[in-house]
Design brief:
The radius of gyration is 33 Å and the shape is elongated. The protein folds into 2 domains: 38 residues; 196 residues, Umud Fragment, subunit A (Ribbon), CATH 2.10.109.10. It has 5 helices and 12 strands. The longest helix is centred in the first third of the chain and has 21 residues. The strands form 2 sheets. Strands 1, 2, 3, 4, 9, 10, 11 and 12 form an 8-stranded antiparallel β-sheet that branches. It has a 4-stranded antiparallel β-sheet with strand order 7-6-5-8, with no helix packed on it. By secondary structure, the chain is an alpha+beta fold. A hairpin with a 6-residue loop joins strand 5 and strand 6.
């Protein structure tokens, strides 16, 4: 009888251990785990907390800004001054390493530059906080660039003599006529004549839409004579990155292939400069347009 009672006790203990008691522990554990998942800042079903997601987003933003500051910067095209090559709303990717290792802008390059002191004498003052936010957005290609930033094509480098126009109505660089096939359809190379020599360390730049571009021609009477210092160049526009339907590589033009002269020697520092910039005849603003 005692043996049978002891067997019954063992059976009840075993049943209690494997059944009701174990199930109760499992239920409590499940409720505890569910409660932890509901606490803010802790991992959810995806395994990624809001705090970690925020830090990851911040890190990505900082990386994008660093990339934009030192390597490649998106640049929103704000005007039609470079049509048809670049259209309003295009976002070009500016290669900031293009001129960092001993190279310099060449004729035909499409460059983005800071026009302070050449195209803009006194930049407008703005709220520091607003300026910082706008600068960050512009650096990511999400807002229009600063009023002092421009995009143009290099037509003359240091030492070049740039003349418009020859007997055929074309721009002439160092005595060679340039067939500018990239110009906006129907545009003349320039509506008025000019004859200048580009000083050392500067560039003569013009928009592809000559009838809608405020460029070096418009600043001949200003300090600096419309020349852009090479050290003000931000980088070379190498790609159209957005919109996707406009994605393209900006291939170098062959328009200046046959041009030779003092510009080549000047840019490498092994030649004489023929003199300071000079202009023969006045120049009129061919049209409005920023960029």
């Amino acid at each position: 009888m005692d043996a049978e009672a002891r067997q019954t006790e063992r059976d009840r203990s075993s049943a209690s251990h494997d059944g009701t008691e174990e199930g109760s522990r499992s239920a409590r554990s499940s409720r505890r785990s569910s409660g932890l998942r509901g606490l803010p800042g802790l991992s959810g079903p995806s395994g990624l907390s809001w705090g970690r997601a925020g830090l990851l987003g911040l890190a990505c933003g900082v990386f994008a800004l660093l990339l934009s500051s030192f390597v490649v910067q998106p640049f929103l095209i704000p005007s039609g001054s470079m049509e048809p090559t670049l259209q309003v709303g295009d976002r070009v990717l500016v290669n900031k390493l293009a001129y960092r290792f001993g190279t310099a802008p060449e004729r035909g390059d499409v460059v983005v530059f800071d026009g302070t002191g050449s195209f803009v004498q006194e930049p407008a003052r703005e709220n520091p906080v607003t300026g910082l936010l706008h600068g960050a957005a512009a650096a990511l290609g999400l807002a229009e660039p600063a009023e002092t930033d421009f995009v143009k094509r290099v037509v003359g480098v240091g030492g070049d003599r740039v003349v418009c126009c020859d007997k055929g109505g074309r721009v002439e660089v160092n005595g060679r006529s340039v067939d500018e096939r990239y110009l906006y359809a129907g545009d003349a190379p320039s509506s008025v004549p000019f004859d200048i020599v580009v000083p050392r360390g500067t560039l003569w730049v013009m928009g592809d839409h000559r009838g809608n571009s405020r460029d070096s021609r418009d600043h001949l009477g200003d300090p600096g004579g419309g020349m852009v210092p090479v050290d003000k160049v931000i980088g070379r526009a190498d790609w159209i990155g957005w919109p996707l339907g406009r994605w393209a590589v900006l291939e170098p033009t062959e328009a200046f292939r046959d041009v030779r002269g003092p510009g080549d020697a000047d840019i490498r520092g092994d030649g004489e400069i023929p003199g300071d910039a000079a202009a023969s005849g006045g120049i009129e603003a061919p049209g409005g347009g920023h960029g």
